[in-house]
Specification:
Blueprint (H helix, E strand, L loop, with lengths): L1 H7 L3 H50 L1
Length: 62
C-alpha cells in the first residue's frame, strides 16, 4: 500500500478506505453494468423488430 500511496501521492488510509468501499459495493457495481447491458440489448432487439415490422407492413400494403 505504501508504494501505491507514494506513487500516486495519496495517503495509504485513502487506498485502504477505497479498497474497503469497493469490496463492499462491488456486487452492486457489476450488477448495474449487467442491467445496463440488458437494457441496451433490449433496445437493440426492439429496434430490429421495429425495422422488420416496417418492412412487412410495406410488403402487405403493396
Amino acid at each position: 500500500m505504501l508504494q501505491l500511496a507514494l506513487r500516486y501521492g495519496i495517503y495509504p488510509t485513502q487506498i485502504n478506505s477505497r479498497k474497503r468501499h469497493l469490496i463492499e459495493q462491488a456486487a452492486e457495481l457489476f450488477a448495474g453494468r449487467n442491467q445496463e447491458r440488458s437494457i441496451d440489448d433490449l433496445r437493440r432487439v426492439i429496434g430490429q423488430l421495429t425495422v422488420k415490422r416496417g418492412g412487412l407492413a410495406k410488403k402487405l400494403n403493396h
